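To: structure subgroup
Subject: Chain for Friday's discussion

All,

I'm putting the inputs and outputs inline so they're searchable in the archive.
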Amino acid sequence: MKKKGVLPVFSEDGVEFIPLSVGWQVCPKCHGQGLVWFPCGVPYNETYTTDGNPYECDVCQGKKIISIETGLPPNSKNQK
């Protein structure tokens, strides 16, 4: 079950849900994980193989959330 307005954070103790402030949303590319399995600029290809290491999400820059208004992560140089 998905909870709206919260960000799931996984730890050794289980899952914690951190409330998101108004104006922020979970990153649509990495789904709030901060990591993706394909490098930036590589279109999805089911035959593409990686070295097994994830890459930092280029949309949220690993911060897991982006602004609804600007689409930028928190503390971004272009963020208001």
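Points worth raising on Friday:
The CA atoms of residues 8 and 72 lie 20 Å apart.
Strands lie at 6-11, 14-19, 24-26, 35-36, 55-56, 65-67.

D.
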